[in-house]
Amino acid sequence: QVQLVESGGGLVQAGGSLRLSCAASGRTFSSYAMGWFRQAPGKEREFVAAIRRSAISTYYADSVKGRFTISRDNAKNTVYLQMNSLKPDDTAVYYCAATFNYGSRWQGEYEHWGQGTQVTVSS
Known about the structure:
Blueprint: E1 4-7, E2 10-13, E3 18-24, E4 33-39, E5 46-51, E6 58-60, E7 68-73, E8 78-83, E9 92-99, E10 112-113, E11 117-122
């Protein structure tokens, strides 16, 4: 069992940057593919980004492609989401997730979830 704790959320103005971190307590972090999802008020949870075990393979939602970067540091049991050129539409609760499967945009694949961290982008 792996436990995930997100941090780094907060308030930022449009055009600004923010970096989210997800710290994992499990002993086999490197065995998991990792993903970031987000949920805005009144909307369904949506895929943001994923990184596979190899770390060289990354995937992004079209809405964040070119602005967000996912990375991982297995030595620190941590996955990151660097968010640049933030827009008000990026406002949401962001969730870190882990899967022993391959890693994709479908949330049903992920077995472990963090508690979420709020990101608010002002206009």
